[in-house]
Amino acid sequence: MSEHMGTTCVQGGYRPGDAEPRQIPIYQSTTWKYDTSEHMGKLFDLEESGYFYTRLQNPTNDYVAAKICEMEGGTAAMLTSSGQAANFFAVFNIAGAGDHVVASSAIYGGTYNLLAHTMHRMGLECTFVSPDCSDEELQAAFRPNTKCVFGETIANPALAVLDIERFANAAHTHGVPLIVDNTFPTPVNCNPIEWGANIVTHSTTKYMDGHGACVGGCIVDAGTFDWMAHADKFPGLTTPDESYHGVVYAERFGQGGAFITKCTSQLMRDFGSIQSPQHAFILNLGLESLHVRMPQHCKNGQAAAEFLQAHPKIRFVRHPGLQGDPYYELAQKYMPHGTCGVVSFGFEGGRAAAEQFMKSLKLAQIATHVADARTCVLHPANATHRQMNDAELAACGISSDMVRLSCGIESTEDLLADLEQALATV
Question: Has this prediction a pTM greater than 0.85?
Answer without folding.
Answer: yes
